[in-house]
Structure formats: C-alpha cells, structure tokens
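User: I'll paste a sequence; please echo it back and then give the predicted structure.

Assistant: Echoing your sequence first, then the prediction.
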Amino acid sequence: MGTPSTRRRHYANDLWCLRYLSGFKWSDLTEKNAYENRVREQKIRLEVMQAKRENNFYVSCVEKSKHAERAIRRKSERGLPIQEVPEERRRSFPQKRKLESETELPAGMLSK
C-alpha cells in the first residue's frame, strides 16, 4: 500500500476512497463550490454595477450644476436678467398635518 511516507500524509487514502464512489465524477463533487463561487461573483458584479450607476448619476448632477452656474455667471456678466424657475415648474408636495397625540387619530387607524 505504498511507502511509509505516503501513508503518513493526510490525503493518502482520498483517491482510494473516491474509487468506490461509483457513478460520481469529480465535477459532481465540486459542483457546490462552483455554484457558490458563481453566486459570490454575481453579487460582487451587481454591487459594482450599482456603485457605478450611483457614481454616474452623481457626476451628471454635478455637471448639470456647473453648467447652470456658468450660465448664471455669464448672464450676470453681460447684464442680462437672470430667469428664475417659473412657478408652474416648481414642485410642491402637500404636507400632512402633524398629529399632536393619539387622541387625534382618525377612527380607522390603530395606534402603535
């Protein structure tokens, strides 16, 4: 069964045991590790794509801001009137009234 040095190794009988796993292939035994690696790589890829998307959005907002500031500066240097955002283009969001106590809750709402 081999020399004494091969029997002392931790993995000396692994191939001997694998020989009796009939119907199995090496790819069957490593399938779980391969799947976990693919899932991990996919998660990393999604995180990188999300970070890239956020970064591109931030950079585009900064560029828009710079262009708007330059336009305002140029108009002020030329003495032209600076146009404000028209009232119909401004967005207003209706605010709900703040409830002071639980007694003011509407009939259908439950308290926490």
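Residues 18 and 24 are 9 Å apart (CA to CA). The mean pLDDT is 77.
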